[in-house]
Amino acid sequence: MILLFVHGYSTIHTDSYGYLPEALAAQNPALQVEHIYLGRYISFADHVRLDDISRAFDTARKDVIGEASFAAITHSTGGPVVRNWARLFFSGTKAKDIPLSHLIMLAPANHGSTLAILAKHALKRLECWINSTQIGEKVIEWLKLGSQGSLQVNLDWLQQSHQGAGYYPFVLTGQKIEHEALNYIDTYLSEDGSDGVVRTSSANLNFIYAQLEQQDTQLKLSAAGLQAPRHTPFLLLPKACHGGKRYGIMKSVQQRNAHQKPVVQHTLECLAVDSSEGYQQLAHKFRQQTQQTELQEKARLCTMLIFRIQDQYGNDDFEFELLLLAGAKQQPHRLPKGFFIDRQRNSDTPNCLTYYLDCKKMRRIQDQQLSIRISGFPTEGFTFYRPATFTLSPAQLETIFQPHQTVIFDICLHRCIDQNTMRFDPLQEGRRAFNHSQASGTTIPDEGTSR
To answer: How many alpha carbons lie under 13 Å from residue 275 in its C-beta half-sphere?
Structure first.
């Protein structure tokens, strides 16, 4: 078996892989050291995009192994790099030809990282700074929660779900915080349900996708309902953080402790899968082990909600307000105490808003009723938006608020255009100024080019 390792953002030395490559070879005779390759890519150059790295990955792997089949073990941003490579080169009818047999993602930033928003300051405090004026701005843009890049890769995953093409993806992550590395200034470094860099819900590829479209004052779920890609085995590892020397999911693996590290044994289990039945069995085993780890670590179980707002014409540059409401009367003060953890708005795509919530508390919501109300602005004039509400059923509430899960909502509001935005006057009635025209209150039909 040929094994390619792909590191994460900000890495500048292949020692970041720790002893994991050697440990796997030592414990599995089928893995030969001469068939293991350590990837290295440039992430600090400001103009390098994730697409560029994924395309360069294709050439790099051909240069060392040609068209041979391979397995990949990735860390952090390395997971999206390889998944994006699959999207670029093996989508649609080409999916069956993908040479990747196993994709084992360690703490992958599949839905982004909370730290991306901190940019330069986070890099300095995490000692990732390399005395350069460049920080990899385009890669950071991809890594921000709710980025267009991450949504593109994940929604393609929803459609393609390459598992059916003959390769087996896995996600292994942790939620341990290495306190010795903290400065206690940025709460994201010690956030519940996170390994200090990536939330478990952001790593997990078992997400939900929902399209909502406004009809009068209601948001209606599309005919497809709540969609999900084919299940990807997900494992919450005990005492594993993102990249520290003591608990780092990969870097902490050393020759002296490799036989004790769960990540080594579980990675070997993933590499041993060679059938759909074996894949499903390991997924079931991982679910049980994840539940055990949750109990052992008394983990706070969280869900991440990503909202992307636009109107029927594809406009996404208008202001909006999003409210979560609870109970039969749809009131914000009926939400359970302590449900809220964090909210981020993407600075590059401000129509994307991410909420991070305590899923256990949300499932105990009053009357089992949760509503999402969106108000676009302006609310009157020549062009305006009316507020719209989506009320989840108890079954939808339970489906959406699962631990370690992300839910992506694509919401389409209705843009109203007043008929006085443009009118014609008969020439025989003469000419007149119209700079003081007022909206009529009557809107034009919803016709013309839409999204």
So the answer is: 3
